[in-house]
Amino acid sequence: MLIAGIGVDDMFIMISCWQQTQVHDNVEDRMAATYKDAAVSITITTLTDALAFYIGLLTPFRSVQSFCMYTGTAVLFCYLYNITFFGAFLALNGSREKGNRHWLTCMKVPEPEENSKKYNLCCVGGAYDQETGKEEVMPINNFFKMYYGPFLTNTWTKVFVILLYAGYLGSSIYGCFQIQEGIDLKNLAADSSYVGSYYDNEDQYFSEYGPNVMVVVTDSKFQYWDKTARKRLDTCLERFESLTLDGRSLVAKNMTLSWLNEYVKPGRVSNPNNETIFMDSLPTFLQQSDFTQDVNILNKIIISSRMFIQTINVSTAVDEKNMLNKLRETANGCSEKLVVYHPAFIYFDQYAVIVSNTIQNIVVATLAMLVISLMLIPNPICSLWVTFAIASVIVGVAGFMALWDVNLDSVSMINLVICIGFSVDFSAHISYAFVSSKEVTANKKAVDAVYHLGYPIIQGAVSTILGVVVLSAAESYIFRTFFKIMFLVILFGVLHGIVFIPVFLTFFGICNFN
User: Fold this and answer.
1) In the chain, which end has fewer C-beta atoms inside a 10 angstrom radius, N or C?
2) Which domain covers residue 253, as residue numbers?
3) Does one domain contain both 436 and 486?
């Protein structure tokens, strides 16, 4: 659906440029004129889209890397299709029109003595103006030229647009400060799954308890039968129990579970300080207790073993991230070789790097977009406006994402990577149309830009939204998040493309090819 939306958007641009060509020109001339106006524009957006996805490969998350690799490659193939196969279909249709052939049967139709609307519609491709030799402008294009463009370039309208943008930016920045990190694990399952009820019950009845974390002794040379060694290990466990987080205890002191402490209790083993007696009695103890899986023995050597500590007062993603860091720091600071582990740590690890990786991807991508814009849009100021639009849309999406109850996690990070690419599309189209316009004043350039590309931009936006709107009712948090962020990206992208950027460009009337 995503790639279909990108492809259809580029098709709309090409069709719009084709409709601006001379109807009775040779097909080669019409194709040359079409590609002259459309090729650079869709090349800019394709490069920025693909580059945004490939920059996503910098993230350490494998799921994000896979998504970005496949989607970036699909964007390139979609571009190749548009400039080859779709262009070939345009040429074939142009040849049909040139040969006076019917649009459905492709049978040759005699040219009437007088031009008629029926003939134009079925054979030429549509009604056209005999004075200009071009297809007649569609009513919505006339709306952009006769009404919307002049209204947008009115002085008072510009003032209103600036105020509107200030409100948009202020709300976005406020939302950015409200954004929450982390993902609720129940959101990884469908709404109807029992997993949701499990986590809801856990939060309701056991909210004071965090993960039951393994403390693993990884040193196969550790002498469990040595009283001094056991003392050092107990000291390490006591360090875990003394940890605090924001003034609150992080580990319950009376809930640490250690097979070793149970094994060396008086009466369990005749002499736990003797290596032979310790190792000979251990298998029997393990079989008769609940610690069977806590000790890994090979050839009477303990390869590794584990104890459990119970964390408490861990309720938010930030708490989980801080807890993970503190536990690892404590394990590294112990005299013994210890590793802390819990199955949920794979998610907590995301929290530790999600913000830095998101910022890194956005900054790198924005700089890359600036370089591409400078290469393909022949005016530095207009290229800066395109880069500004990227940053502005990203801030808006991030801010309103938070206000729409979407957390910053690996799922939303994927969508923000998409946002980087999509945020440039509409603004790049308008900026390129602005600088390539032959009008002499900045206001007329802006009107000309929205006249030629206002309708294709709306078509592309609507087609993309229709492609993903079905996901708004999905039972999966992942799909609903995808819809929310895509909706925000398209909405703010269109808002920048046909409202903010045309007005801002009029402040710099020097933006042209000369």
Assistant:
1) C
2) 194-348
3) yes
Give me the helix-helix angle, 410-436 and 2-19, nearest 10°: 10
Cα-trace Rg, the chain: 32
- DSSP-derived pairing of the beta strands 244-245 and 248-249: antiparallel
Residue 444 lies in a domain: yes
Strands (E) located in 191-270: 209-217, 244-245, 248-249
Task: Give the position of tokens 């923000």.
Answer: 416
CB of 181 closer than 8 Å to CB of 354: yes
Count of structural domains, the chain:
2
Residue 6's CATH number: 1.20.1640
Whether residue 468 sits in one domain with residue 323:
no
pTM for this structure? 0.71
The answer to whether residue 496 is domain-embedded is: yes
What does the DSSP assignment read for 253-318? TT--B-HHHHHTSTTT-S-TTSHHHHHHHHHHHHHTSS-GGGEEEETTEEEEEEEEEEEES--SHH
Tokens linked to 14: 């090409």
The reply to whether 325 and 437 lie within a common domain is no
φ, ψ of residue 507 in degrees (nearest 5) = -75, -10
298 and 266 in a single domain? The answer is yes
Residue with tokens 């404590």: 330
357 token code pair: 């990786």
- Give residue-wise pLDDT tens across range 32-82: 988 887 887 788 778 877 877 787 777 776 767 787 788 888 889 888 988
- 25 shares its domain with 90: yes
State the Cα–Cα distance between residues 293 and 248, nearest whole angstrom: 32
Q: Determine contact, residues 295/302, Cβ cutoff 8 Å.
A: yes
The string of pLDDT tens digits covering residues 296-331 is 998 888 999 999 999 998 887 788 888 998 999 999
The letter for the amino acid at 200 is D
Write the DSSP symbol of residue 133.
T
Q: Say whether both 20 and 69 belong to one domain.
A: yes
Whether 222 and 329 map to the same domain: the answer is yes
